[in-house]
């Protein structure tokens, strides 16, 4: 066996006693800078978020599902079905050439507007607090505004990519993205009293225009108008004003105070979880106490059952997804790729921040699901379609398609661009030559020697 000494370990740049060699950290850094890194970062982070979401939906909905349907698995099986549909669409979308995504821009946004307008027909359904943002089709419910998000991202990226030479002219950038498409879609959503989704749509529009290079001075005016609009809509609703008062008024000394029940019990769930959690399936608040435990407030159940590590894992996975989106934006040579990745990043992160902020009390309760994690078929399918587009964008990066399309194992393709570790230094006084290998004798040479 080869003898390994302390000197040889130090010559490789590492340390003894189990320390990680320096070349290993260098290799990880090189891989993160490789063209295939964004693809696998998106794939792994979204797969883990979706998987965690399925597990926690089963845990958080089991009690309520049994109460309403007699089975603890009703909500989970529905979520599993929508996850299968979404994953199938994501796989198809990831393999779809970007030129086809661009061609789908106008049909997608037209269909999104049509479905959103249909909620005001007899097909529409009123949800909690009188919000009208659902459709009933074939015994299933559909929330068109979720698909409006992905349609707006694709449409906005396709339109702005063709106007990159005149993007400094605000009217050129606004038509038709803001006028009429954005305004009509936003108006239909707000007419259904869905302020949370309206805020996400405004964030997507702002992210697309910012990434397209619209002069920064225009965002001051647009931001002021958006803030005034949100304030006006909040002031016109007693329910929204109560939520703001609960958030700012510091009046929730107990759950019995009007409007404080959900906020206080979400805090109870996080407090009961402590550092390490009560254990998977051991939540107390899901027993008919915390409203919407498997939907908007699923993070509270994650914190209660999985503790601080579970909550931080969710934050870390969204941070990885954000980093992957940023890498796609920074490495893209195509304007459509850059804009679409920006829109998707703003969509996922803005919605996650609003949801998490509502659960932990840093924002008023707005009522948007946690992307890829919360229960809800429309939200999950739409988010997974967005993931499929994000994977297609990552595959289009320079050098990524060649690395991903090469033969060999997945690991070999993943680390194709990682350099090999540097060879060990030759000890002083050595010639550096390798000992000559023994030459095998051929049968002819052996016969000649016998003679």
UniProtKB/TrEMBL annotation:
Its EC number is 2.4.99.28. The chain crosses the membrane at residues 39-61, 73-92, 104-125, 145-163, 170-189, 195-212, 219-238, 306-326, 346-366, 372-394. Keywords: Cell cycle, Cell division, Cell membrane, Cell shape, Cell wall biogenesis/degradation, Glycosyltransferase, Membrane, Peptidoglycan synthesis, Transferase, Transmembrane, Transmembrane helix. The keyword tRNA processing does not apply. It catalyses: [GlcNAc-(1->4)-Mur2Ac(oyl-L-Ala-gamma-D-Glu-L-Lys-D-Ala-D-Ala)](n)-di-trans,octa-cis-undecaprenyl diphosphate + beta-D-GlcNAc-(1->4)-Mur2Ac(oyl-L-Ala-gamma-D-Glu-L-Lys-D-Ala-D-Ala)-di-trans,octa-cis-undecaprenyl diphosphate = [GlcNAc-(1->4)-Mur2Ac(oyl-L-Ala-gamma-D-Glu-L-Lys-D-Ala-D-Ala)](n+1)-di-trans,octa-cis-undecaprenyl diphosphate + di-trans,octa-cis-undecaprenyl diphosphate + H(+). InterPro entries: Cell_cycle_FtsW-rel_CS, FtsW, FtsW/RodA. It is an enzyme of class 2 (transferase). Pathway: Cell wall biogenesis; peptidoglycan biosynthesis. PROSITE patterns: FTSW_RODA_SPOVE. Its main location: membrane. It is found in: Cell membrane. GO terms for cellular component: cell division site; plasma membrane. GO terms for biological process: cell division; cell wall organization; peptidoglycan biosynthetic process; regulation of cell shape. It comes from the Bacteria. Residues 403-451 are annotated as: Disordered. Peptidoglycan polymerase that is essential for cell division. This is Probable peptidoglycan glycosyltransferase FtsW. It comes from Ornithinimicrobium cerasi. The lineage of its organism: Bacteria, Bacillati, Actinomycetota, Actinomycetes, Micrococcales.
């Amino acid at each position: 066996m080869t003898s390994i000494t302390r000197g040889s370990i130090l010559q490789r740049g590492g340390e003894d006693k189990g320390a990680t060699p320096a070349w290993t950290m260098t290799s990880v850094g090189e891989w993160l800078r490789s063209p295939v890194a964004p693809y696998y970062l998106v794939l792994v982070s979204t797969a883990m978020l979706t998987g965690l979401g399925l597990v926690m939906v089963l845990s958080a909905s089991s009690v309520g599902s049994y109460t309403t349907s007699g089975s603890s698995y009703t909500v989970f099986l529905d979520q599993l079905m929508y996850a299968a549909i979404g994953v199938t669409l994501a796989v198809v979308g990831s393999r779809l050439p970007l030129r086809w995504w661009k061609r789908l821009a106008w049909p997608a946004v037209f269909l999104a507007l049509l479905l959103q307008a249909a909620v005001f027909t007899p097909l529409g359904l009123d949800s909690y607090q009188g919000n009208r943002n659902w459709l009933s089709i074939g015994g299933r419910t559909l929330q068109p505004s979720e698909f409006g998000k992905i349609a707006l991202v694709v449409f906005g990226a396709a339109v702005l990519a063709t106007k990159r030479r005149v993007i400094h002219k605000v009217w050129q950038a606004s038509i038709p993205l803001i006028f009429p498409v954005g305004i009509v879609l936003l108006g239909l959503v707000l007419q259904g009293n869905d302020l949370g989704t309206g805020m996400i749509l405004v964030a997507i529009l702002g992210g697309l225009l910012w990434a397209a290079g619209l002069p920064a001075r225009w965002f001051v005016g647009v931001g002021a108008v958006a803030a005034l609009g949100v304030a006006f809509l909040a002031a016109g609703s007693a329910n929204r004003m109560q939520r703001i008062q609960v958030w700012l008024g510091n009046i929730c000394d107990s759950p019995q105070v009007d409007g404080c029940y959900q906020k206080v019990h979400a805090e109870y769930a996080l407090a009961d979880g402590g550092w390490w959690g009560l254990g998977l399936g051991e939540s107390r608040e899901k027993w008919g106490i915390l409203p919407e435990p498997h939907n908007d407030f699923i993070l509270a159940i994650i914190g209660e059952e999985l503790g601080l590590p579970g909550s931080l894992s969710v934050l870390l996975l969204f941070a990885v997804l954000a980093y992957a989106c940023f890498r796609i934006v920074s490495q893209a040579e195509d304007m459509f790729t850059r804009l679409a990745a920006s829109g998707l990043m703003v969509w996922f992160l803005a919605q996650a921040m609003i949801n998490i902020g509502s659960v932990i009390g840093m924002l008023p309760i707005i009522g948007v699901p946690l992307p890829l994690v919360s229960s809800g078929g429309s939200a999950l399918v739409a988010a997974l379609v967005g993931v499929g587009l994000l994977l297609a964008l990552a595959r289009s990066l320079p050098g990524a398609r060649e690395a991903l399309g090469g033969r060999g194992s997945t690991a070999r393709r993943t680390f194709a661009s990682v350099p090999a570790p540097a060879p060990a230094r030759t000890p002083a006084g050595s010639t550096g030559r390798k000992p000559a290998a023994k030459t095998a004798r051929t049968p002819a040479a052996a016969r000649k020697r016998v003679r």
